[in-house]
Amino acid sequence: MKNTKYYTPYEVSLHNTIDDIWVSYLGKVYNLTPLIKEHAGDVLLKPLIEMAGKDISHWFNPKTKDIRTHVDPLTGCVKYFTPNGRFLHVPPPWPCADWPTDSGRPWWSETRYEEGVLSGKTRRLRIVNTLTSQEQTIEVCTEESLNAILQRYLRYNAHATSYTWKHNGVSLDMDKTLGDNGIPDEDEEFYQLRMDRERYTQAIHLYFNDDLTEF
């Protein structure tokens, strides 16, 4: 989808403080900062804070999208599986009179915390400015379009939209992905051949047009 925002695991990992907490699970990226602020001081936030910037998919059942459960060997009862400790909105493992049953939807069922989609596969890409001979190697998501990659590259060249993007002399369709533009991800082949992928990164060449569009 054109409007889908993709993130690399590295980008998620940068949000790892109590004032800026992101996590990923089941293929999506979530900004839990508002949740943490709303429940500031709650001891049940500790597992979430400890996992800031990380993937917590192992907490969830991919079929039900709910917290994993297990059978307690001592009681034979089904309980939530919380290897990092019980966290916010997970009920206690035993009857508890002070547990609020009207707390609404658990945070992991809320869509308001969604930031985007976690890339299923990232790749490195060389972008060469033929006008200045400057070269940048950036990590991109295989699912995103060249326009999305251009947005990533703007930090290095504010006039990036004033260039024609080409690969092997062929102009690229900026609405398509690298793969759809005929630029394959060869990481698996390099692995099979025991080749260093860092030495054979695919390159896109930028050719300057006649205007200086700046974003």
Describe, in short, the structure shown.
This protein is α+β, with helices and mostly antiparallel strands. It contains 5 helices and 12 strands. It is elongated.
Question: What this model shows, in words?
Answer:
This protein is of the alpha+beta class and 215 residues long. It is 14% helix and 25% strand. It has five helices and twelve strands. The strands form three sheets. The protein has a five-stranded mixed beta sheet with strand order 1-7-4-3-2. Strands 9-8-12-10-11 form a five-stranded mixed beta sheet, with helices on one face. Strands 5-6 form a two-stranded antiparallel sheet. The protein starts with 5 loop residues before the first strand and ends in a 7-residue tail after the last strand. The model has no long low-confidence stretch (mean pLDDT 89).
Write the layout of secondary structure elements.
Elements: E1 6-7, H1 9-13, E2 16-17, E3 20-25, E4 28-31, H2 33-38, H3 46-50, E5 69-71, E6 78-80, E7 114-118, E8 122-129, E9 135-141, H4 146-153, E10 163-167, E11 170-171, H5 187-192, E12 203-208
Parallel strand pairs: 1-7, 8-12
Antiparallel strand pairs: 2-3, 3-4, 4-7, 5-6, 8-9, 10-11, 10-12
Pfam families: Cyt-b5
Family: Belongs to the cytochrome b5 family.
Subcellular location: Cytoplasm, Cytoskeleton, Cilium axoneme
Q: What is the mean pLDDT?
A: 89
The biggest beta sheet is recorded as: 5 strands, mixed
Low-pLDDT sequence parts:
none
Q: Strand-and-helix sequence, N→C? A: EHEEEHHEEEEEHEEHE
Return the structural class.
Answer: alpha+beta
Radius of gyration (CA) equals 22 Å
Strand content: 15-25%
Spatial strand order of the main sheet: 1-7-4-3-2
Tally the helices: what do you get? 5
Q: How much helical structure, as a percent, in the residues?
A: 10-25%
Please report the distance between the alpha carbons of the first and last residues: 23 Å
**Counted beta strands:** 12
The shape, in one word, is: elongated
